[in-house]
Amino acid sequence: MLSKITLGIHSFLVICLLLTTHNASAWGQNGHRIIGQIAEVHLTPTTQSALLPLLEGESLAQISTWADEMRSDPSAFWQKKSSRWHYINAPDSTTGFIHNHNHSLNKDTVTNILEGIHFSINTLKDKKSSIDAKRFSLRFLVHLVGDSHQPFHAGRKEDRGGNNISVTFFGQDTNLHSLWDTKLIENENLSYTEFAHFINSNDKLLIADYLQSTPAMWLEESNNIANVIYNKNETKISYQYIYTNMPIIKTRLQQSGIRLSGLLNLIFDNSAKPLVDALKMPANTN
């Protein structure tokens, strides 16, 4: 039987691990799971069937946090290269977010989230890709579609997407990135299934609007939102901030879930209708 001291040490280590994982997660674990849960509702039966061997018994909600959880893996890719998959620095006013289609990508040469999304799409569409490569790409793609809708994953390089901007949340010290990743969502005190159910939509016009988009557009939207928040320069966060900004967060989570399903339907179901079930974009464009 374990001693009380041993049990105490074990509990402490588990809590530390959970805190570490929680702080590292973009959108927080609940945010990513909300997106995965919404996406599952909008998948076509053909896409659902195609995903079964890739999911290995898990759901989109379950795999949505994998790309963050793997950051503890000691291998060179996860320690030195994977972090740049999760974000893109704000471009100058003349270029916008542009994906270089002539850039031959493998997982080690991906330099930003937009390249990571397109690498994952291409891998999933390539009939020559191994099952392991497709599982890797699906898990990353589910996560990156979520990240692309978090405003500060397309924020400023100089403040690391808000990580270096200190704010207080009801008097507790945090930073702007963590506030939007996690704290505002957790403040709703909802499970991810409850949250997803509350904000999901079957409005055909709204879905059509969301699906008429590309990954580059998602990042432009995020950057525009981030710039508005930067310009307001609010550092003492309480009720008024929540009232103003939670509708933005809910919209971004809703858009992300519906667009993720649209992208997966585009990849796996040739009969999926653009602007109804699938994104309108060809999968090899921005």
From TrEMBL:
Keyword list, A-Z: Disulfide bond, Endonuclease, Glycoprotein, Hydrolase, Metal-binding, Nuclease
The UniProt record lists the keyword Hydrolase: yes
GO terms of biological process kind: DNA catabolic process
MF GO annotations: endonuclease activity; hydrolase activity, acting on ester bonds; metal ion binding; nucleic acid binding
Domain of life per record: Bacteria
CDD domains: S1-P1_nuclease
Keyword Iron-sulfur set for record: no
SUPFAM superfamilies: Phospholipase C/P1 nuclease (SSF48537)
Record-given protein name: S1/P1 Nuclease
Species lineage: Bacteria, Pseudomonadati, Pseudomonadota, Gammaproteobacteria, Alteromonadales
